[in-house]
Design goal:
single chain, 1161 residues, alpha+beta, seven-stranded mixed β-sheet, 17% helix, extended, disordered C terminus, laminin egf-like domain
C-alpha cells in the first residue's frame, strides 16, 4: 500500500507550503486530524512579510486550520466554522456559481473553494482562491499574562500548613503562596466561603496535604485587571493610576506624577502616607534574603477576633471529638479545668470511645475516666512530651500517666497520640486513638503519729473569797509520714507499669520485680521466656508452653500460638520430618540415561556420566576421540568414531599391536606408589610416557558454559603464584585438592559480562562466581592510570586479553573472600613456664596449634541451579546463613547446665553435631558474637566475640578459648553445627516442589512428546480464527482453573485434523477435577456448554469385569490412560482417542465455517 501523505504534501502551492513549514510545520505533519484551507500562490500575495514575525505567521496559518475533518458535504450543511485561533468563519454559497465561500469574522475577503476533499494521513485539504484576511487577535500575547497566571495559581495554595476544615472555619484569614490573604467566613446555613467562593468538597487527603474544591476561581488583587491594557472595558482597582488614551498604543493605565510603574502597580514614597493599624512607617523597603522589612512606630496588637477560643468552643470546632466534649459537659468539668492557670487535655476520638465501650460492653465512661485524661497547671505541647516522662492527672498524685516513644510514634500509656497541639485560650488539646484505662500506679502509705505535749492548760478563777485552779487539756500533735510506694505491677521511682498488659504483668506467665526499688524484670515461669514472658522457650509450644516439639529434620511451629506442626528441611518429609527423600528413586533422579544417579544428602543427588561419556550428568554425550589430534591417526588418514574412546583406524591399519606395546613398560614392576615418585618412563614401543597429575577441575567447563558467557577473568600471574607460601602452593596443586582449587579460581571469574578496560574504574557491582564482590579503584600520586582490585590489594598488570569467551586481565595476587580473611586468632596457654603465642599463616585457619587451609564458602545454586528445576528459584540456605551453620543451645534448666555428653545429645536432638573449633571460628569471622561459653568438639569450651567489649572476654576479639576440659562433668552451654540444604521454589506461574515445576496448560502440553498432534491442531486453530486465539490465551491464563482431556498421538494420528469445536470440547473450564473425582456418572461442562460424561465402562456393548471397572475410566467412551498431570492453571488427563463434539444448530455451523477452513472436519 502506498504511504499516505500528511497535510504538508508540497504539490504546486510552494509559497503556502513554505509559510506553513516555517510557522506551523510540526503540528500539521504530526498531530490532527485537521481541515486546512490552502490558498493558491496567487491568493497569498501581500503575505511575504509574515515570515519575518513567527508569532504573526503562526496566527495567520491557524486562521486557515479547523479542528477535525470537515469535507465539502459537511461544509455545505453548516453556516459557521471555527479556526484554531478561536475566531469563527462564515460559510456561504455564491449566488451565481453556487460555490462555497468562507470569510473570517472581522474580515472582508471571502475565499472561494476551488478543489475539495484532498485526503491526507492526518486530515483533509480544500484549495481556496485567496487567503483569509489577516485579522488581528483580540489580545496580544505578553509576558504579563504568564506572570498573572502564575500569581493566580499561587493564590490558591497555602504552603507549610495542612488545614483541616475544623481549623479552617476557626480562623479569619491566612497568607497564600502569592503572599496575599485568603479570607474565610460562613453563611447562616453553614456554607463555608473562601474569599466569597463556596467550598464544594472539603478535606480531600493527598500524600502531601489537603485539597478543597471551590465553585469559582479566587482572583488575587495584584492581577486586576486580568486582561491587559483594556482600561475602556475593565477599570483598574489599583489606587492612583489613571486610564488614558495614547494615539500610538490605544488605552493605557498611567501612574500619576511622582510615582513609577506600568499603571497596574504604581510605586512611590509611601512612608509619609501609609499607616498600619494606626502605626506609621518609619523606614521602609529594608531588603533581606527572604523578604522585606518595614520599621513602624508602635506595636501592633491582635484583633479581638483572633483571641483563642475557650475549651468547649474549641472542642465544638473538633467534630471528631464531640463525644468527649459531651462528657466534659455531662460531668460539669469545664469550669474546674478552666479554673487552673493552664491545662493539657488528651481527648480520645469518637471512634476510640465507641470501640472502647463496645469492647467493654459498657454504656458510658464514668467521671473518673474523663478526669484521668486531664493534666492541670501545665500546658504541654508535643515538643514538651519526652520519652519516660510522667504527669499527675485530675484524679490525683496516685494516678499518673506516662509518655513513651516507640518507633517514632508518641504514646501516652499505651494510647497513640494522633492529633496534636490544638490551642485554646489557656491550654492545649491532643487527640488520642484509644481511651486510657485508669492505672493506679502509686499506693503511698500514710502513717499518722500523735504525740502529747509536756505542759497542760491551767484555768484559775478568783471569786472574792475563793481562788480556784483547774488543770485543763494536754496539747497533742499529729504528724503524718508519707512513704512512697508503687502499686502491684508497677516499678521504679516513677512507678512505671511492668512489661505485659495493663492489670496483667508479665502476661500472667511470670512474676514482676515491682515496687519503688524494683527493676521491672519479669521472672518467667517454667517454659516461658521473653521480656514480658510472652514467648515459649525454644522447642516448646502451646498456651502453657508445656508441649515439646517433635520435629526431627525441620522447623517446629513453636511458641504460645504454635501448634507443633513441622516445616520440613529440604530433603525430608513426614509428620515429624523423619523420612529422607531419595532423589534417585524415580526417573534416574532426572539424570541422563547415560549417567549414574548418586544420592548425596537427603533430597539431593549428583549425576555422573558413565565411562566413555562427558557432560554435566543431566546431559551426557559420547566422547569423540577424533576431535583431538585427529584421534592419533596420520594427518593423511581419516579418523572414524566407532564408539566411546574407540578408533577404527587402529585395527583397519594393523597398528593395534603398536598401541598395546605403548601401554606397557618393561624391565620394571611399577606399583602405584612408584609412579608417584617418577615423571617419565619408556614404553615397550620405545616411546617416552610422561607421568603427571590430571587437573580435572572443570574450570574450562565453567568458562565455556554458555550460561556464564561472556566472562571476565582476573588471572594471577606465574610470579604471583610463585610468591605464595610453599605450604599453600602444595595445597592448591595437590591431587586430592583439585575441587578446592576450583573454588579458589571462582573468585577470579565474573560471569555474564565482558568488562573493557575503560569500563573497569566505573564498575561498581562486579560479583564473582563464588559470590564475593570485586571493587576496582584507580591509582594516584606516582601510580596515576594504574588499576587496583579490592582496596589496592591486587594490581592489574596485564589488560584486556580478549579470547572467544570474553576478556582476561593479569593480576599480581591470588584473590580470596575478604569476609573470611587469611588470619587465625591467637591461642594463649596458661602455663607461665611455657608461655607462647601460635598464629596460623595467611590462608590457613585454626587455633595456632593445628592449622588447615581455609575452606571457602560455596553457593551451590551457581552449579546446575543447585539441582533445582530450571523454572525454580534456588536459595542455598547454608551459604546465606550468617553464622555458617553454627547455633547456640542452652539447657531447659537454665544457663550452663549441660555436661559434655548431654551437650552432644542436645545437638543430636536438633539433627546437628557438636561444633568444632574451626566451625565456630568461621562463624566468628562472619560476625557471630555471643558472650556465653559452650562445649565444642574435642571436649573443649569457648565462645566467639566479633567486636571488643570489656564485659565479654576482656575486650578480646576472636575465640575466647577455655581449652580442653579434664573434668567432663563440668556444665556449660553448647555450640552445634548443622549444614542447611538448598531451598528450591518454583517461579511465579509455575507449580511444584521446586525440584519439579510445571507451567500453564499450554507449556505442559508442549513438554509432552506424546501429545504433539493435539498440540499441532491447537496451534493451527489459533492461527486460523479469533476463537482459536482466545482458546490459546485461555490455556495460558493463570487465573483460570480448568480440566483438559488431551488425546495421545497413538489415538490422534498425524494426518487427522480436529475442528475448532472438537478441540474446545476437550476442555472443561468449570473446575479442576482430579482422577479420583472422576467417578462413574460424573458430568463436566465444557467451553461449548456441552457436557462430558465419565463412566467406568466404554458402553453398553462392552461389559467390563469388576477389576476393569475399578481400573479404567472413560470420558465420552475414550479411556483415560494417564492422569493428574498438574499445571499452574489446571490439570491434564491423557485419553486414548480424541473426543467429537455433538452437532450444532445450523447457525452455529455457519459461524464455525466463517472462522476458517481448518475449523471444519
Amino acid at each position: 500500500m502506498q504511504q499516505e501523505r500528511t497535510l504538508l504534501p508540497g504539490y504546486k502551492w510552494g509559497r503556502n507550503v513554505h509559510l506553513s513549514e516555517n510557522a506551523y510545520e510540526w503540528p500539521l505533519s504530526t498531530l490532527g486530524p485537521f481541515t486546512v484551507l490552502v490558498p493558491t500562490n496567487k491568493g497569498l500575495k501581500g503575505t511575504k512579510d509574515l515570515l519575518n514575525n513567527k508569532l504573526k505567521a503562526q496566527y495567520f496559518v491557524k486562521l486557515h486550520v479547523i479542528a477535525g475533518q470537515l469535507n465539502t458535504s459537511t461544509l455545505n450543511n453548516t453556516n459557521i466554522i471555527y479556526t484554531l485561533t478561536g475566531k469563527s468563519g462564515e460559510v456561504s454559497k455564491g449566488e451565481k456559481d453556487n460555490q462555497l465561500r468562507i470569510r473570517i469574522q472581522g474580515g472582508r475577503r471571502k475565499g472561494k473553494l476551488l478543489q475539495g476533499n484532498i485526503i491526507a494521513s492526518n486530515g483533509i485539504l480544500h484549495i481556496i482562491d485567496k487567503a483569509m484576511d489577516n485579522v488581528e487577535p483580540t489580545f496580544e500575547s505578553s509576558k504579563e499574562g504568564s506572570w498573572k497566571l502564575l500569581e493566580l495559581v499561587r493564590y490558591h495554595i497555602v504552603s507549610n500548613a495542612e488545614l483541616e476544615v475544623a481549623s479552617l472555619v476557626s480562623i479569619e484569614h491566612i497568607r497564600s503562596m502569592a503572599k496575599q490573604f485568603i479570607y474565610f467566613n460562613r453563611t447562616c446555613t453553614g456554607q463555608v466561603l473562601v474569599s466569597g467562593e463556596e467550598i464544594e468538597e472539603t478535606d480531600i487527603v493527598a500524600k502531601n496535604g489537603r485539597i478543597y474544591t471551590l465553585a469559582g476561581v479566587l482572583i488575587p488583587p495584584t492581577i486586576v485587571p486580568i486582561l491587559p491594557h483594556r482600561c475602556d472595558e475593565t477599570r483598574s482597582q489599583v489606587a492612583m493610576a489613571t486610564c488614558q488614551f495614547e494615539s500610538s498604543h490605544g488605552w493605557e493605565c498611567v501612574c500619576p506624577k511622582g510615582y513609577e510603574g506600568d499603571g497596574r502597580i504604581c510605586y512611590g514614597n509611601a512612608a509619609d502616607n501609609l499607616t498600619l493599624e494606626g502605626a506609621h512607617i518609619v523606614a521602609g523597603d529594608i531588603a533581606s534574603t527572604n523578604g522585606i522589612i518595614h520599621v513602624i512606630d508602635k506595636v501592633l496588637t491582635p484583633l479581638r477576633s483572633t483571641v483563642m477560643p475557650r475549651l468547649l468552643v474549641r472542642l465544638e470546632q473538633m467534630p471528631d471529638y464531640s463525644i468527649f466534649r459531651g462528657y466534659i459537659i455531662q460531668y460539669s468539668l469545664a469550669k474546674e479545668i478552666e479554673a487552673a492557670n493552664t491545662y493539657t487535655i488528651f481527648a480520645p476520638s469518637n471512634d476510640a470511645i465507641e470501640n472502647y465501650l463496645r469492647d467493654k460492653k459498657s454504656a458510658t465512661l464514668d467521671e473518673g475516666q474523663i478526669r484521668y485524661h486531664v493534666v492541670l497547671d501545665e500546658k504541654l505541647l508535643k515538643n514538651n512530651l519526652h520519652n519516660g516522662m510522667h504527669r499527675e492527672t485530675m484524679l490525683g498524685f496516685s494516678y499518673q500517666v506516662g509518655f513513651f516513644l516507640h518507633n517514632g510514634q508518641l504514646f501516652i500509656n499505651d494510647a497513640p497520640i494522633s492529633y496534636t497541639n490544638v490551642a485554646t485560650d489557656k491550654g492545649i488539646i491532643h487527640g488520642l486513638g484509644k481511651v486510657l484505662e485508669i492505672q493506679k500506679n502509686r499506693c503511698d502509705i500514710n502513717d499518722t503519729m500523735i504525740t502529747a505535749g509536756d505542759k497542760y492548760c491551767v484555768l484559775s478563777e478568783n471569786n472574792m473569797t475563793t481562788y480556784t485552779i483547774q488543770i485543763g487539756c494536754q496539747p497533742k500533735c499529729a504528724k503524718t509520714v508519707i512513704t512512697r510506694e508503687c502499686c502491684a505491677g508497677f516499678f521504679g521511682q516513677q512507678c512505671q507499669p511492668c512489661p505485659g498488659k495493663a492489670g496483667n504483668a508479665c502476661f500472667g506467665n511470670g512474676i514482676c520485680l515491682d515496687g519503688i526499688n524494683g527493676t521491672g524484670t519479669c521472672e518467667c515461669g517454667e517454659g516461658f521466656v521473653g521480656t514480658a514472658c510472652e514467648s515459649c522457650i525454644e522447642g516448646k509450644y502451646g498456651h502453657n508452653c508445656d508441649q515439646a516439639c517433635a520435629c526431627v529434620h525441620g522447623k517446629c511451629s513453636s511458641g504460645i500460638d504454635g501448634d507443633g506442626s513441622c516445616e520440613c528441611d529440604v530433603g525430608w518429609r513426614g509428620v515429624t520430618c523423619e523420612t529422607a527423600i531419595d532423589a534417585c528413586k524415580t526417573s534416574n533422579g532426572g539424570c541422563s540415561a547415560k549417567a549414574e544417579c548418586r544420592r548425596t544428602t537427603p533430597g539431593n543427588r549428583a549425576c555422573v556420566c558413565n565411562a566413555g561419556y562427558t557432560g554435566d550428568g543431566i546431559v551426557c554425550i559420547e566422547i569423540n576421540p577424533c576431535l583431538e589430534n585427529n584421534g592419533g591417526c596420520d594427518r593423511n588418514a581419516e579418523c572414524t568414531q566407532t564408539g566411546p574412546n574407540q578408533v577404527k583406524y587402529w585395527i583397519a591399519k594393523g597398528v593395534m599391536p603398536q598401541v598395546l606395546r605403548y601401554h606397557m613398560v618393561g624391565c620394571a614392576s611399577l606399583l602405584y606408589n612408584d609412579l608417584t615418585a617418577i615423571t617419565n618412563v619408556t614404553s615397550l614401543q620405545g616411546d617416552p610416557i610422561h607421568i603427571g597429575y590430571s587437573q580435572k577441575n572443570n574450570l574450562l567447563g565453567l568458562i565455556n558454559d554458555p550460561i556464564h558467557k561472556p566472562v571476565t577473568l582476573f588471572w594471577p600471574t606465574d610470579t604471583a603464584i610463585r610468591g605464595l607460601p610453599q605450604e599453600q602452593r602444595d595445597f592448591l596443586f595437590k591431587k586430592s585438592n583439585t575441587d578446592k582449587l576450583v573454588q579458589y579460581l571462582k573468585f577470579h571469574i565474573v560471569r555474564d559480562a565482558a568488562v573493557l578496560a575503560y569500563q573497569l574504574p566505573h564498575s561498581t557491582s562486579l560479583k564473582t562466581l563464588q559470590g564475593s564482590n570485586l571493587s576496582v579503584s584507580c591509582g594516584d600520586n606516582g601510580k596515576i592510570g594504574a588499576l587496583f582490585l579490592n582496596d589496592r590489594q591486587c594490581k592489574i598488570v596485564q589488560r584486556q586479553l580478549e579470547f572467544d569467551g570474553g576478556i582476561a586481565y593479569g593480576i599480581d595476587c591470588l584473590l580470596t573472600d575478604p569476609s573470611l580473611g587469611g588470619r587465625c586468632d591467637s591461642f594463649f596457654t596458661m602455663d607461665f613456664m611455657d608461655k607462647r603465642q601460635c598464629k596460623c599463616k595467611n590462608n590457613y585457619i585454626g587455633d595456632g596449634l593445628n592449622c588447615s587451609v581455609m575452606q571457602l564458602p560455596l553457593d551451590r545454586c551457581l552449579q546446575d541451579n543447585g539441582q533445582c528445576h530450571p523454572d525454580a528459584d534456588c536459595a542455598d540456605l547454608h551459604f546465606q546463613d550468617t553464622t555458617v551453620g553454627v547455633f547456640h543451645l542452652r539447657s531447659p534448666q537454665g544457663q550452663y547446665k549441660m555436661t559434655y555428653e548431654k551437650a552432644k545429645e542436645a545437638c543430636a536432638n536438633e539433627s546437628a553435631t557438636i561444633a568444632t573449633y574451626n566451625q565456630l571460628l568461621y562463624a566468628q569471622k562472619a560476625r557471630y558474637h555471643l558472650c556465653a561459653a559452650g562445649w565444642l568438639d574435642g571436649e573443649r569450651v569457648g565462645y566467639p566475640t566479633a567486636f571488643s567489649s570489656p564485659n565479654c572476654g576482656s575486650g578480646y576479639v576472636g575465640i575466647v578459648d577455655y581449652g580442653r576440659r579434664v573434668n567432663l562433668s563440668e556444665t556449660w552451654d553448647v555450640f552445634c553445627y548443622r549444614e542447611k540444604e538448598v531451598n528450591c521454589t518454583c517461579k511465579p506461574g509455575y507449580v511444584g516442589d521446586g525440584f519439579s515445576c510445571s507451567g500453564n496448560l499450554l507449556q505442559v502440553l508442549m513438554s509432552f512428546p506424546t501429545l504433539t498432534n493435539f498440540l499441532s491442531d491447537i496451534m493451527a486453530y489459533s492461527n486460523s480464527s479469533r476463537k482459536g486465539r482466545e482458546f490459546l490465551r485461555y490455556l495460558t491464563d493463570l487465573s483460570v482453573h480448568a480440566t483438559l482431556f488431551a488425546p495421545n498421538d497413538s489415538g490422534l494420528r498425524e494426518n487427522e485434523t480436529l475442528s475448532g469445536r472438537d478441540i474446545e470440547y476437550h476442555l472443561s473450564n468449570a473446575s479442576i477435577m482430579f482422577y479420583e473425582d472422576l467417578t462413574n456418572g460424573t458430568t463436566l461442562l465444557t467451553r461449548l456448554g456441552e457436557k462430558l460424561l465419565v463412566t467406568n465402562t466404554r458402553g453398553q456393548e462392552h461389559q467390563a469385569s469388576p477389576t476393569e471397572q475399578s481400573e479404567i475410566r472413560y470420558v465420552d467412551q475414550s479411556a483415560i490412560v494417564e492422569w493428574d498431570i498438574i499445571a499452574s492453571n489446571g490439570i491434564i488427563h491423557v485419553i486414548s482417542e480424541p473426543l467429537k463434539a455433538p452437532p450444532t444448530p445450523d447457525s452455529d455451523d455457519q459461524q464455525l465455517m466463517m472462522s476458517g477452513p481448518h475449523d471444519q472436519n
